[in-house]
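Appendix B, record 7
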Amino acid sequence: MIGLIKSGQHYHKMNSFAALADPTRRQIIEALAQGPLSSGEIAGRFEISAPAISQHLKALRVARLVRVRVEAQWRIYELDRQGIDGLLEWIQSLKCDSLS
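Structure tokens (predicted):
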């Protein structure tokens, strides 16, 4: 029996898929695909509380799907290209010739 490999990379993938399972988080990712947004701009797109948006953004940061930078009093969110690329590379590595 093959055991699970408990590596940082394994947990990153699991966090990424868990984060993407939520429809609000997927909508945040889609919005950020158009370009960076402040936390207020993100919150303004949804009819849920600002603390709820903050929790969604935290889950996306932990999953390495988004990153944040501080500009003056603003927290600016953008896609974490390195994290997303790593996840896409792993998914692509699973593709076998029989699926083509």
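Remarks on this record: The beta strands are 37-38, 66-71, 74-79. The chain has one domain: 9-88.
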